Amino acid sequence: xxxxxxxxxxxxxxxxxxxxxxxxxxxxxxxxxxxxxxxxxxxxxxxxxxxxxxxxxxxxxxxxxxxxxxxxxxxxxxxxxxxxxxxxxxxxxxxxxxxxxxxxxxxxxxxxxxxxxxxxxxxxxxxxxxxxxxxxxxxxxxxxxxxxxxxxxxxxxxxxxxxxxxxxxxxxxxxxxxxxxxxxxxxxxxxxxxxxxxxxxxxxxxxxxxxxxxxxxxxxxxxxxxxxxxxxxxxxxx
Length: 238
What we know:
The protein has 238 residues and is of the alpha+beta class. Helices cover 18% and strands 26% of the residues. It is built from 5 helices and 13 strands. It has helices spanning 2-15, 47-50, 53-67, 215-221, 226-229, and strands at 33-35, 71-74, 100-101, 104-107, 113-115, 120-128, 135-144, 147-156, 168-169, 174-177, 190-196, 209-210, 235-236. The strands form 3 sheets. Strands 9-6-7-8-11-4-2-1-13 form a 9-stranded mixed β-sheet. Strands 3-12 form a two-stranded antiparallel sheet. The protein has a two-stranded antiparallel sheet with strand order 5-10. A hairpin with a 6-residue loop joins strand 6 and strand 7 (135-144). The longest helix is centred in the first third of the chain and has 15 residues, at 53-67. The chain is globular, with a radius of gyration of 17 Å.
């Protein structure tokens, strides 16, 4: 059933790709994007770095500075070692941990405004405050060509939760900001952006990371976020 839902949405998102408003301020002709790597192949991300949010933030800032990039970007379907920093991603029974990332991350400065790529209604929001979790989180409900889907915005500012369920957010309307570590789940400032087809009755939260063994279901339920972001084509590959 999910496959039957995913394909039409992907086709619709691709068909309408020229109408989406930038989720973050970005000028392709002058702003650089850096592809970030949070897999175990990145030997610079030592246990000491990822378990200290100040050192982790400094690492991200240094990478962006060295590349002259406004944002770091990437992570969809990336198998990440950094989730070992938090037991949020551990299995309650000691089994397989969650390590596969389901959204796209945009790493940048705290306070960076976040806008809706298309109009949508506030479905739900929540402060997921566990260490390593989303922190402040907003979920919007959209409808495009009669197909409903959701977008999730994780690691935003607490002040952004001064909204109401059912509130309409216009295309291009700034409604959130990159949060500081104390309000974003104790991560370096960034936005986790994710597309979700079936929200599964969840409110203010939905897995942004899954077990590798569950990837088929979750990657279908959460198509590539760049379908809306339209940013990957501008990544600087050096």
